[in-house]
TrEMBL record:
It comes from the Bacteria. This is NAD(P)-dependent alcohol dehydrogenase. Its cofactor is Zn(2+). Residues 178-299 form the Alcohol dehydrogenase-like C-terminal domain. Residues 26-140 form the Alcohol dehydrogenase-like N-terminal domain. Keywords: Metal-binding, NAD, Oxidoreductase, Zinc. InterPro entries: ADH-like_C (IPR013149), ADH-like_N (IPR013154), ADH_Zn_CS (IPR002328), GroES-like_sf (IPR011032), NAD(P)-bd_dom_sf (IPR036291), SDH-like (IPR045306). GO terms for molecular function: oxidoreductase activity, acting on the CH-OH group of donors, NAD or NADP as acceptor; zinc ion binding. The keyword NAD applies. SUPFAM superfamilies: GroES-like, NAD(P)-binding Rossmann-fold domains. Belongs to the zinc-containing alcohol dehydrogenase family.
Length: 340
C-alpha cells in the first residue's frame, strides 16, 4: 500500500476525497489502520468557519481526532504493540521536555502537535502514524466506535478530575451533548450520588437519564434556580455563557466549577456568590493521562459509549457526518468508518 484515501478540508464547506501517501511511521511510531473516527463539534466548526479562535485553517487539512484502529506497521524502535493489536489513539503528542510536560500537565504543552488542529492532519483517512505511547491497547469488549470515543470520554474524565468529583458528590452538568453525557456517566462511576443534567433538548435529557443521570431539568420549562438543587460541583458542558452564569449561582459553599463547554467569549460572573461561597472556578484544556482510566470505564461497562452513536458514514460522506447534528435533532454522535 502506497496511497490511501483521505478526506481533506480545502476551504470553508469544501471537503473532498484525495489520494495521499500512506504515512511512514517514525522510529517510535506505529501505523494505525483507522476503523472508526468520531466527529466532534470542533471538526464541524472548522468545516463551517475555517477557524477556531486563533487556530486558522490556511491550507488543506484532514479533520477528525477521535480515532480507533489496528496496528499494521511499526517504526524501527517501536516495541509496545504487536501487529494486529486494536488500539485507541490519543490525538496529541507533546514535546516531553518543557516545564508543563515535566510537571505532568502535558495538555498545556505549548508545542503540542494535535490531530486536526492546523497544520496537523487528523484521522478522517485510512491510516495514521502515531507515537506508540499514544496508542493504547483496547480489549475486545470495547468496540471500534467506542475505541475512538475514548477521546471525548477523556474530556469527561479530565473534567471530573478537575472538579474533584468523588464519592457522595452532588454534580450538576449543564448541556447533554456528547461531552455532558460522558461526563455524567463518569461522575457516577467516580462515586457521585446525584448527577443532574440540564438541556433544552428533551431527547438528549431522556438519553442522559438512560445512561445514569439521577435527575434532568429541561431549562426551557423550568428555571434552574427554581429547582432548588445545590451541587458541590458544576461541570459546565453547554458552552452557553448565560447558562453557565445561571448554573454558577446554584453551586454550594466551597463548590467547584469546571468550564468545559466552548463557544462563548465572555462570561459574566455572579461575583459575590463566587466570593462569599469561596467557589473554585477552572477551565479545562483537553486532558492528560486519561486513556487508562477511560479504557477501564468503558471496558467495565461503567460508561456506555456505543449508546451515543446515532449515525455512521463512510469516508466519502464526511460532510454528511459533520452536518448530521444540524440536520437531525436526534443526532448525538456521528462516526466515520474509513474502511467502509
Ligand atoms: Zn473532540
Ligand atoms: Zn511540552
Amino acid at each position: 500500500m502506497k496511497t490511501m484515501r483521505a478526506s481533506v478540508l480545502r476551504g470553508v464547506r469544501d471537503i473532498a476525497l484525495e489520494e495521499r501517501p500512506v504515512p511512514k511511521p517514525g522510529p517510535r511510531e506505529v501505523l494505525v489502520q483507522v476503523t472508526s473516527v468520531g466527529t466532534c463539534g470542533s471538526d464541524t466548526h472548522y468545516y463551517e468557519h475555517g477557524r477556531i479562535g486563533s487556530f486558522v485553517v490556511d491550507g488543506p487539512l484532514v479533520l477528525g481526532h477521535e480515532a480507533g484502529g489496528v496496528v499494521v506497521a511499526r517504526g524501527s524502535a517501536a516495541t509496545r504493540h504487536a501487529l494486529g493489536q486494536r488500539v485507541a489513539v490519543e490525538p496529541g503528542v507533546p514535546c516531553f521536555t518543557c516545564p508543563q510536560c515535566r510537571g505532568g500537565r502535558y495538555n498545556l504543552c505549548p508545542d503540542m502537535r494535535f490531530f486536526a488542529t492546523p497544520p496537523i492532519d487528523g484521522a478522517f483517512c485510512e491510516y495514521v502514524a502515531v507515537h506508540e505511547d499514544f496508542a493504547y491497547a483496547v480489549p475486545d469488549s470495547i468496540s471500534d466506535d467506542a475505541a475512538g470515543l475514548l477521546e471525548p470520554l477523556s474530556v469527561g474524565v479530565w473534567a471530573c478530575r478537575r472538579g474533584r468529583v468523588g464519592p457522595g458528590a452532588r454534580v450538576l452538568i449543564t448541556g447533554a451533548g456528547p461531552i455532558g453525557l460522558v461526563a455524567a456517566q463518569t461522575a457516577r462511576a467516580f462515586g457521585a450520588t446525584e448527577v443532574v443534567v440540564t438541556d433544552v433538548n428533551p431527547r438528549r435529557l431522556a438519553l442522559a437519564a438512560e445512561v445514569g443521570a439521577t435527575g434532568t431539568i429541561d431549562v426551557r420549562q423550568t428555571a434552574l434556580a427554581s429547582s432548588g438543587y445545590v451541587p458541590d460541583v458544576l461541570l459546565e458542558c453547554s458552552g452557553v455563557p448565560s447558562a453557565a452564569a445561571e448554573a454558577i449561582r446554584t453551586v454550594g459553599r466551597a463548590g467547584r466549577v469546571v468550564l468545559v463547554g466552548m463557544g462563548g467569549d465572555e462570561l459574566a460572573l455572579p461575583l459575590s456568590h463566587v466570593q462569599n461561597f469561596e467557589i473554585e472556578l477552572t477551565g479545562t484544556f483537553r486532558y492528560a493521562n486519561t486513556w487508562p482510566t477511560a479504557i477501564d470505564l468503558a471496558a467495565s461497562g461503567a460508561v456506555d459509549l456505543d449508546r451515543l452513536v446515532t449515525h455512521r458514514f463512510g469516508l466519502a460522506d464526511v460532510e454528511q457526518a459533520l452536518t448530521a447534528s444540524a440536520r437531525d435533532e436526534a443526532a448525538v454522535k456521528a462516526v466515520v468508518r474509513p474502511q467502509e
